[in-house]
């Protein structure tokens, strides 16, 4: 489970005195606890599942990528480098990211599985992708590729 990996990685980073990793993993654990609290309010007493944690990690990466772009635009490479280091730590907990050809192959499989056709099939296809490939792709890129594949 990802929860256990977070805890073990935090201990390892503390032993190695890798303060950049320690702070990033602590942020991840804090965000996970926030999601657990939200899940409890919805009746899920066990906390969020690994698939949801992968979505959380993807969101954290996306947020940092946007920050990197803003920092680079403002000539603050020092802050951009800090964000890039955090992205590297977060990505250690995520599955291998699919490239463009991998995304196209997965979309073709999703279209076959869901029977999606036309632009109206976009919702079910994206839901299928998120359920089966959480954390493995950039869903903005997948959305554009899916729209193209569905003829939109």
What does this molecule look like?
The chain is 74% helix and 0% strand. Helix 1 (2-15) runs antiparallel to helix 2, helix 3 (50-73) packs antiparallel against helix 4 (77-91) and helix 5 (100-114) packs across helix 6 (122-132). The protein has helices at residues 2-15, 19-41, 50-73, 77-91, 100-114, 122-132, 139-149. The model has no long low-confidence stretch (mean pLDDT 91). By secondary structure, it is mainly α. It is built from seven helices and no strands. The protein folds into two domains: 2-91, Uncharacterised protein YqeY/AIM41, N-terminal domain (Hypothetical Protein Yqey, Chain: A, domain1); 100-149, Arc Repressor Mutant, subunit A (Orthogonal Bundle). 21% of the residues are buried.
């Amino acid at each position: 489970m990802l929860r256990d990996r977070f805890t073990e990685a935090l201990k390892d980073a503390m032993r190695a005195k890798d303060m950049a990793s320690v702070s990033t993993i602590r942020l991840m654990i804090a965000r996970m606890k926030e999601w657990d609290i939200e899940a409890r309010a919805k009746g899920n007493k066990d906390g969020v599942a690994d698939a949801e944690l992968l979505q959380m990690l993807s969101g954290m990466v996306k947020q940092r990528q946007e920050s990197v772009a803003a920092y680079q635009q403002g000539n603050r490479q020092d802050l951009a480098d800090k964000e890039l280091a955090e992205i590297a730590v977060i990505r250690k907990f995520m599955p291998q990211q699919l490239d463009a050809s991998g995304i196209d192959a997965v979309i073709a499989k999703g279209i076959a599985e869901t029977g999606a056709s036309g632009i109206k099939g976009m919702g079910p296809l994206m839901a299928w992708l998120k359920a089966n490939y959480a954390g493995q792709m950039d869903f903005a890129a997948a959305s554009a590729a899916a729209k193209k594949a569905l003829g939109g």
